[in-house]
Design brief:
The protein contains two helices and no strands. The protein is mainly α.
Length: 75
């Protein structure tokens, strides 16, 4: 079973894959393999960022109601 990487490890691996793809030294099969791996890493990183965003939202806005915005008085 593959151990899940943390966000920083996933991002670093993604940067490495992109760098290798941009080098122009990969075969078509290697490019496709890197592309598929990169796509999965982007999905994993995006999901982790969304989880963190939701946690921050709960900390900043603990109530389930949307925040009330008061109109500003213009002078």
């Amino acid at each position: 079973m593959e151990e899940k990487q943390n966000f920083e490890e996933s991002l670093s691996k993604l940067e490495t894959l992109v760098s290798e793809m941009e080098s122009g030294r990969l075969s078509l099969d290697e490019m496709m393999s890197h592309f598929e791996a990169g796509k999965k890493l982007v999905k994993d990183c995006s999901a982790e960022l969304e989880r963190v965003r939701q946690r921050i939202e709960k900390i900043v806005n603990p109530s389930s109601e949307p925040p009330q915005v008061e109109p500003m008085e213009l002078i």
